[in-house]
Amino acid sequence: MMQPVFLPELVDPFNHYPLSLGRGYWFNPVNDEKYYINNGIPVFLPEEQMSGNNLKYSRFYDRISRFYRVSSVFYNWLRGSSEKKIKMKYLEQLQVKPGDKVLEVGVGSADNLLYLPRNASYTGLDISFGMLTMAKRHLRNWNIPAGLFQGEAEHLPFAEHSFDVVFHVGGISLFNDSQRAIHEMIRVTKPGGQVMIVDDNEVSQVKAYHKNPFSPASVVRTDEEQSAPVKLLPNGMRNIEVRYFFDSMLYCLTFRKPGQVSKSEIKPFADKMH
């Protein structure tokens, strides 16, 4: 039997007023703005309100959502590797402790959650409703309880200090506003909590280490966009580290939000795997 899904405190993503639950929607009691629930997934940014890259990639991933996971697993198999081996390279950098509340921004089809400890509470947000539909199916099959939400990274519908760990994998430079997205991830992280951002380091030299053949790998991005976005962090972030994997083709940026955290509580990820 699945444990109950953790529900973070929800706020209006555009003004951060606390939301109340109506019949089939969440609403802002100050301005009566409504955010409808579609097939169990609250929608905080319907397509008619999207623009720029967010609209472009929402439609792109909606189209390929049904084939995304199977193509990824098969592609890695053809290259002589496995999805788990590849994902664990960066997921091992997360310091998820029992009982932690964890948010993945850009959860996609929830593939990363399959390889994280089961003794934490998970929340996923994505801009593609098609990918969230697949994520919901996968999580049910894997018996992993997690709350799913549609929205954009630049305007997260969660209250300040909601999560112990927040992470994003593969696409930070494709957002409409990468810096705002990073600041939003920090806003919803608890003081002392960990943030991780993973992405390609050099698009011009992309290899077959982790790419899904349906991913928008042909997008041309500048060297500045492809380097770890340390300069986009606000002042005061702690324990900033950048690691590179797969011949430096992938960067993994980790840091902590200012605040108190006990060193004794931080243990190697491998020690906590189920």
From TrEMBL:
Class of the enzyme per the UniProt entry, highest EC level: transferase
A single MF term (Gene Ontology): S-adenosylmethionine-dependent methyltransferase activity
UniProt KW Transferase keyword: yes
A GO BP entry: methylation
SUPFAM superfamilies recorded: S-adenosyl-L-methionine-dependent methyltransferases
EC number: 2.1.1.163
Pfam families: Methyltransf_11
Name by which UniProt lists this protein: Ubiquinone/menaquinone biosynthesis C-methyltransferase UbiE
Species this chain originates from: bioreactor metagenome
Encoding gene, per UniProt annotation: ubiE_27
